[in-house]
Design a protein that fits this description.
This protein has 263 residues and is of the alpha+beta class. Helices cover 22% and strands 19% of the residues.
């Protein structure tokens, strides 16, 4: 009981936070991880980047973000972070449905190297049906002010009509510029959300977002975790080579997609 009470005290979910997420498609929670946790998880991320990153990345002049995919499957501490009960408790409360862990990536922007991250939403590339409640956590492992490439969100963009969305992609060749399918895009405001190490933002899979360049001398290191509705099924999509053995329509469940704690 003491542990449960301690956990509840660390989940700062107010009615206002829920409403902000419902209306805007994103929400920012400061100080979710302690300084000790940040140091531990950052060291694990840097270790995995050093081990795997250079073999995965393309030419520097073409890279928007350097990443290590499915990091939770490759390092026990990064699995622990993806299943962190405070993070998953917030995710479940915001989604308002049971969730499973889909994936997690280390997201790194090198100092004065990487290009801006293009404007996009996450739904288009997800290899799953039933994605309507899917959301992503972006966990800051260093301070990320605007000049280091923090995320910017377009409030309310997750509520746009289906006809104003990209739709499901099976390859990047199908990508369509959102300006061409959403007439209101050019008139919608952006909100930039600087974060400190240990902060977490959540955004809905349809929320339009982007990130700028890292114009500082320190690497931007974040950890992106995708939580999907527990009943999601496989729908072939972008970058799903690790799922190609599955039959379309098969539930994404079992130990490869663990249920997360609700907090």
């Amino acid at each position: 009981m003491a542990e449960a009470n301690q956990l509840a005290s660390r989940v700062p979910l107010s009615d206002g936070s829920r409403q902000h997420y419902r209306e805007n498609g994103y929400v920012h929670f400061p100080g979710i991880l302690s300084a000790d946790e940040v140091a531990e998880y950052r060291a694990a991320a840097e270790e995995l980047v050093h081990k795997e990153g250079p073999e995965l990345w393309g030419p520097e002049e073409e890279v928007q973000v350097h990443y290590v995919a499915n990091a939770w499957r490759k390092h026990d501490l990064l699995k622990k972070l993806a299943l962190h009960p405070v993070v998953t408790g917030l995710a479940s409360a915001l989604a308002e449905v049971p969730l499973r862990l889909y994936s997690s990536d280390i997201l790194l922007k090198k100092p004065r190297r990487a290009l801006p991250t293009l404007v996009h939403d996450d739904e288009t590339g997800l290899p799953m049906s039933n994605a309507a409640r899917t959301l992503s956590a972006w966990i800051a492992l260093v301070d990320v002010p605007e000049e280091r490439g923090c995320l910017s969100f377009m409030p309310g963009s997750h509520l746009r009509a289906d006809s104003e969305c990209q739709g499901h992609m099976t390859s990047f060749a199908e990508f369509v510029n959102i300006r061409d399918i959403w007439p209101d895009y050019a008139w919608r405001p952006w909100t930039t959300v600087p974060v400190r190490a240990g902060d977490v933002t959540f955004h809905h899979c349809r929320t339009v977002h982007r990130a700028g360049v890292n114009d500082t001398d320190e690497a931007r290191i974040g950890y992106g975790v995708v939580y999907m509705e527990a009943g999601a099924t496989y729908l072939p999509g972008v970058q799903d080579e690790h799922l190609r053995h599955l039959r379309p329509g098969r539930p994404l469940d079992g130990p490869d997609f663990p249920l997360v704690e609700t907090g």
